[in-house]
Structure formats: structure tokens, C-alpha cells
Here is the input.
Amino acid sequence: MADHDNPQEVADKFIAKLKDSPFIMIGLMDGQHSEPMNAKIDDDQPNTLFIFSGRDNR
Here is the structure.
């Protein structure tokens, strides 16, 4: 049997890393454009990220 983290452990590690540095890059599927964004985490809503954007964010 492989020594892999279960999905909840992966999610917990990901959220912990985002709490340390919430900055992420969101890009278009074609890779032509990316924007730095800030992920918001609400401890009352587990396994949920909030990323707010607007039409004029460029």
C-alpha cells in the first residue's frame, strides 16, 4: 500500500499553507493571462476558499 495522504490531510495541509501566505495566481485556461489574488479562509466553513474578483480587476 502506498504512503499517500488521504484527501482530508491534503486539504488540511493546503489550507495551512494558505493561512501562512494567502497569495495565489489565477490564470486563464490558455495561459495568456494571470492575476495575483488573495484567498480568504473562514474557519467556520471548513474546506472552503473565497476568492473575490470583479470585471474591472485588470
